[in-house]
Design a protein that fits this description.
237 residues; 9% strand; 44% helix
Length: 237
Amino acid sequence: MKYMMTDIATHIDLGFGVTASNFRQTALFLDENYDDSIYTGEMPILYLYRHSVELFLKSLITIFHRKLELPYKDGEVAFDNDLPLIKSEKNQWREITKCHDISTLYRYYLQLIENNKSLLVEKAPKGDWNIINPDNQRYVDLIKGYDFDSTFFRYPFTKNKNVDSKKFGVKKVDPKDVLNQFKSKSTLLIFNDDEELVQAHVSTKVDLKDITNAIKELSFYFNCIHAMTRATLCDHW
């Protein structure tokens, strides 16, 4: 890919794509070398995957607008505007850097593909533009349920209180029931000055299998679509 060897200032997508690739490669490296210890290392790794999806989408949206010369805001803003725009479900436009919702980005990505498929085929006949994976929407909806504003993997608590507790591997339990928890990897017992058991905390395995699979599948998918788009629509630039 030629763009990988050029100054980011020359990239048609403002560098979103190469940055997405960097996040994905780092996630893959950490994922392959992560040992499932008491520490919840999945969270930063999943954030890297998740952010790669966001950046791949922003790259593709920017590329489609610029290569197909599609203006923003119903023709009011030029296709090569310094900062790309994104349209929300309520048809409101805002700067793409201010949108972190994968659902909004994916919906707009779908719209661009579906409305301009013939133009994509004309501009890049070597590309395969029948690229909508039917499983993607399910993955996107699942991610939105956990992480609609890109905070779930980055902060200890978010606006989505219903799922916050799922990301921590240590749980406080009733001291009376602590003997039932000894199958856990580790248990911390806290006694008062009278040697009475007052608190018990046990380690448990974080269960994020559903969202983990969704994020990894989307990251892989968009990595492939991004590579195909750069090769066929951008002549590798």
